Amino acid sequence: xxxxxxxxxxxxxxxxxxxxxxxxxxxxxxxxxxxxxxxxxxxxxxxxxxxxxxxxxxxxxxxxxxxxxxxxxxxxxxxxxxxxxxxxxxxxxxxxxxxxxxxxxxxxxxxxxxxxxxxxxxxxxxxxxxxxxxxxxxxxxxxxxxxxxxxxxxxxxxxxxxxxxxxxxxxxxxxxxxxxxxxxxxxxxxxxxxxxxxxxxxxxxxxxxxxxxxxxxxxxxxxxxxxxxxxxxxxxxxxxxxxxxxxxxxxxxxxxxxxxxxxxxxxx
Amino acid sequence: xxxxxxxxxxxxxxxxxxxxxxxxxxxxxxxxxxxxxxxxxxxxxxxxxxxxxxxxxxxxxxxxxxxxxxxxxxxxxxxxxxxxxxxxxxxxxxxxxxxxxxxxxxxxxxxxxxxxxxxxxxxxxxxxxxxxxxxxxxxxxxxxxxxxxxxxxxxxxxxxxxxxxxxxxxxxxxxxxxxxxxxxxxxxxxxxxxxxxxxxxxxxxxxxxx
Lengths: 268, 210
Fold this sequence. Notes:
The complex is a heterodimer of chains A (268) and B (210). Chain A is mainly alpha-helical and 268 residues long. In chain A, 72% of the residues lie in helices and 0% in strands. The radius of gyration of chain A is 25 Å and the shape is flat. The two termini of chain A are 43 Å apart. Chain B is 77% helix and 0% strand.
């Protein structure tokens, strides 16, 4: 990190990131915007990066977690730290009692740590939903679906989950309902977002059988997250492995999560 | 005809006045956006369509800017509107060639509409995932940048004024680099941003080549 200590006035173009992220004072912002009018390249850069800036500012939690997880991966694991600690104590006089104590501590700490780490691995972010007028063969169910999704958009996830259940039950009598798979998926996701992963399993599992590939893949991904939250690594691994192999959208994300998971829980 | 735009007051301040009901501030805001939109559109669309594109984008901004949750960042947000309008322009041209597709029955219409909506949502999700992956990769390649982003994002999460957000992020970074000044922090952040853009470009290249 160069230039520490001396507070040099930066070039205007160096303030781009601070401007994008809303860190500049009103006066600095005005100066920077005046500069943009003169410098089309910087304005172009601002234009090109705008969707990413909006994404960062809309959901900083998600991206902070990504950075933290990557940084944490670079640090030695607790097991590696223990081994390093033990190797420093490798003198015959202290070896036996210290090892016994360390083994005891590890044995006592491992199950609790696994639960904690698996929960930390789970990524449960709301999927954006665009409210549209929907006509899918069952008017009453459609109306309930729209009302429930309005609750979802307002982040009232428990109410959304209940509303979607009503929509599903209403449509059951009709036989075919074009929105059934979506309703099942969003009900599962709403339950996950309402911190009820156990209840999310059934609707998400049903939605994984959707013929609409995007719905099926999304459902697999969130089902894997539910399994992680429930400390069921084997089921999560199975789903993530399938996504990592076959999904063009979730493939890389699943592979990365699988890799992290297998660092904590041995491969099955 | 060249239009003059204000340079002694930020667009966020103009926007705040406009939101408070000041009509002259609203006129000033849209004059300023028009100048910037035109410069950007000129590089991307045919000369004959620039005016329409800019007008369309400004109308969307006018319709939606009062509903924004954030009180700052009006220019960046407006630029995303312009991006969408330009994107739609290219999509519309593409669709012109696909008009001959026949729809067989209502069920097919419903399914195709559903799929289109999901696809647009997937695009947003894809962008978010792309960014998430790039930030993870940035943190691995440049741990200092990873830490700076961690502090900054944690500060954004807590919210507050630009000064508060900036100061908290700086305090976080100063735990490891106590001599860092605000200006140097901005420069360092800018370098990290450049690294992140590079990572995103590499990812994009990777997708293109399968």
